[in-house]
Write a structure and sequence with these properties.
The protein has 250 residues and is an alpha/beta fold. Helix content is 39%, strand content 15%. The C terminus is likely disordered.
Length: 250
């Protein structure tokens, strides 16, 4: 089964885009070629190499199918504050049925922070979407992250009912926190290679990235397609009208 991975939250500064960059790196290292898209008009670059989708405008079901058609796995970074709009779009256009017909499944990645608002967002999404979606909650200590446990009991009950999984990322090394605080770039940019790091910090970033990779292992079935989807050429799989970014085919 092909996999569409959607990261969303109604709370800003949750580490959402950082996690998507980590996931992109993990998938690439494991032999997949994820197709990327984002919905934030204020950040046209979005995820490294991604295209822009307008949730409240021109986005169609075919666009989402195009993310998984080409290589078997697509990543969509939904802008902060657009979670409810995306959930409404998902249900109104029967995206779950479209994915099932294309032999694909969807995973929602929802970062949870120390703010109860992020957990309330999870509850709203669980109520709005059908149970044919897999759920992964991400707790990223040091990235606006939460400790274990639930401030909103309904959030914990929803995750239990939906068989959701939790991924707890390791703390960011202090040297990288200090570098970010000094204004010398941000973590998603470093992970994507858009902004450089001093040589002595590159090894710290690499080690942290691999530790995050290991933390994601417990949700591997939700965060990547089966091995049979590795390194597929688009010519071997049905392709929709979606324009595949050139870097994904290199």
């Amino acid at each position: 089964m092909k996999k569409l991975i959607i990261c969303l939250s109604d709370v800003s500064r949750t580490g959402k885009t950082t996690f998507m960059e980590l996931l992109k790196g993990r998938l690439t290292r494991n032999g997949f070629k994820p197709i990327l898209a984002h919905t934030d008009p204020a950040q046209p670059a979005g995820l490294s190499g991604s295209d822009f989708f307008d949730v409240e405008g021109s986005l169609t079901g075919e666009d989402l199918l195009g993310l998984v058609d080409a290589t078997g796995v697509g990543i969509l970074d939904v802008a902060s504050g657009e979670a409810a709009a995306f959930a409404e779009f998902y249900e109104r256009h029967d995206i779950g049925d479209l994915l099932a017909e294309a032999e694909a499944t969807a995973t929602l990645v929802i970062p949870v922070t120390m703010s109860s608002q992020s957990e309330k967002c999870l509850v709203r999404l669980a109520e709005a979407l059908r149970a044919d979606v897999d759920y992964v909650v991400v707790r990223a200590e040091g990235l606006g992250a939460a400790a274990t446990g639930w401030a909103v009991p309904n959030a914990g009950r929803a995750m239990h009912h939906l068989d959701g999984l939790e991924v707890v990322l390791p703390p960011l090394p202090e040297a990288l926190k200090n570098e970010e605080a000094s204004g010398n770039g941000r973590l998603p940019q470093w992970l994507s290679g858009k902004a450089g790091l001093p040589r002595y910090l590159k090894s710290a970033l690499h080690e942290w990235e691999l530790n995050c990779d290991a933390a994601m292992d417990r949700a591997a079935d939700f965060l990547q397609p089966p091995a049979s989807m590795k390194a597929h050429s688009p010519s071997q799989m049905p392709v929709s009208s979606y324009r595949v970014p050139a870097e994904a085919l290199v």
